[in-house]
Amino acid sequence: MSADANCIFCKIVAGQIPSKKVFEDEDLFAFHDIAPWAPVHFLIIPKLHIPSMAQVGLEHAPLLGKIMALAPRLALEQGCRPYPEGGFRIVTNTGAEGGQEVHHLHVHVMGGPRPWLRG
Ligand code: 5GP
Ligand code: ZN
User: Using CB atoms within 10 A of its CB, is residue 107 exposed (0-12), middle (13-18) or buried (19+)?
Assistant: First the structure.
């Protein structure tokens, strides 16, 4: 489960598909969603190709913890207003019935003034 040659998010991590980067370190990559539902809408992904939350085990706890701990900081940096008036929504769609379209684990972070396009 390192890079998957057919995965668009692995290609984004590798720079083979352009993206509007929000953050990068050795483990994680964050970039703006190409079809935002909210004024602020970016995705945080592990660089490691994990298809979805369904493949996550306890060994991934540090990686997922890092994603969750980074989200509030990036949300503010990207223009979400502070809690409690502002805030943000975190969503991870998993599998077909969970509404997942891209099978590389990603956390949506959405926020900004309402109304939103969806949600
Ligand atoms: P999912 O439905 O799998 O939870 O969400 C996938 C998200 O990835 C969608 O919101 C979609 O707009 C976004 N997306 C799909 N392809 C690309 C792309 O090539 N670049 C970027 N920046 N976002 C993408
Ligand atoms: Zn991938």
Answer: buried
